[in-house]
Design goal:
Strand content: under 5%
Largest sheet: none
Number of helices: 3
Distance between the termini: 42 Å
Number of strands: 0
Shape: elongated
Helix content: over 70%
Order of helices and strands: HHH
Length: 87
């Protein structure tokens, strides 16, 4: 089972990836081809967070799994929005 502290730390990292991706999404939607490399980096951070979640989820208790599932939903939605944005 994952410790509460390690789950909290991981979720904070996910929130950081979401903030970065959200900023890049907003900037890219304002300007065409604003900074493709930074935009792609933000997408990569989202992908990495989703990939890292799998083993953490497997060892989490039911309450932690619920928190992780909510975060995964947010990560997936942002990833989808970034892919669909025509910038």
């Amino acid at each position: 089972m994952g410790t509460r502290q390690s789950i909290d730390h991981f979720l904070e990292q996910c929130e950081g990836a979401l903030r970065f991706a959200d900023f890049e999404y907003i900037e890219a939607s304002r300007q065409e081809h604003w900074d493709d490399e930074t935009y792609q980096n933000a997408q990569a951070y989202l992908e990495e967070a989703i990939r890292q979640m799998e083993p953490i989820y497997a060892s989490a208790n039911p309450e932690q799994k619920e928190r992780l599932q909510r975060m995964k939903g947010q990560l997936d939605l942002m990833r989808h929005d970034m892919v669909m944005l025509r910038h």
